[in-house]
Amino acid sequence: MKNSIDENGEIMKKIKVYVLAGFLGSGKTTLLRNFIQYEKNHGRTPAILMNELGSVSIDTGAVEEGTPIAELLDGCICCTIQEKLEAQLQELLYRYQFDTLIIETTGAAHPVEVVDSIMSPLFAHQFDFEGIITTVDALRWKNRSELSPQVLHLLREQIRNARLVLLNKIDLVSEMENGTFVYEIQGLNSDATVVLTKHSAFDLDILSKVAKKEIMTHDPSPIGEKFKLQSFVHTFTGPIQLESFENWLKSLPDTIYRLKGYVLFTHSDKPYLFQYSYGMPLYFKEDMMMPLNLVIIGESLDKNHLQASLTALENNEENI
Ligand SMILES: Nc1nc2c(ncn2[C@@H]2O[C@H](COP(=O)(O)OP(=O)(O)OP(=O)(O)O)[C@@H](O)[C@H]2O)c(=O)[nH]1
Fold first, then answer.
1. Three-point CA angle 43, 45, 46, nearest 5°
2. In a domain, 224, yes or no
3. Domain that holds residue 121
4. How much distance in Å is there from the Cα of 200 to the middle of ligand 1?
5. What is the ipTM of this complex?
């Protein structure tokens, strides 16, 4: 389902969310500039969320005046400043109208954890996660043996979870080397589209083409979906039974990494904030009503099945 219904019964168009990942200095801000221009050329308003490790913003100058922007400084979305992220996103949504949200992560961010943070159940029904675009510095890739194992692991994770990889700074290595690097990147992520770029410039129409493919994938394809890391949001319409919910959790595949959301149970008049990662469910009772959104993040999600099983839970049906 693409759109949510607002309180007046109107269809709400979801905001497309893109995450820009890539190691320090690989070309994310350069890509951001191109992306903003592309959105504007197509009559859309982008909003930007920039995360920087330092306490002072350096890259916000790259964003033209008039573009909605929020900054998260002095920490990485994926580890230390998740609550601040929620507040910033809420403020962006409250103050501005926009069609696209582009999030530039710090070069040190683990992409899975960033997606996890963005897909807050508070407003996940307004967002459509469109995927991770990773920039790879061709020269750094060439010299990657100089990197620590931890950094190299991060670089690989950023590539593995991308929907689109930009092999950037191709002017700094030879044509033959670029060919080898594309081959190596595809070895890490055969589903991603890899484009060779100078100054992160490419035809961004590619994005809508790949996105359409993802959206149309209602049938779980036997060869897997193009898009590796995905999120799915279910909005409960009423209370469910705790026991059935726990049985449903046990039935989930290992490729679901994370669940979080507000769930109302039949035994309580207020919802619980529910958190689940690494097989560990946690429940925290809220003292007021919250949007009953459940966010599910994983690889190659079988969204039809998730939807059907969650609806069955709500209808209190057996054998889900
Ligand atoms: N030679 C060359 N330089 C590039 C290219 N793309 C970007 N640069 C330069 O590389 C530097 C870093 O680019 P950014 O876009 O700021 O990289 P970033 O990933 O946002 O960097 P951080 O914010 O530090 O993580 C800048 O000086 C860019 O002008 C390219 O294709 N070739």
1. 130
2. no
3. 11-216
4. 8
5. 0.98
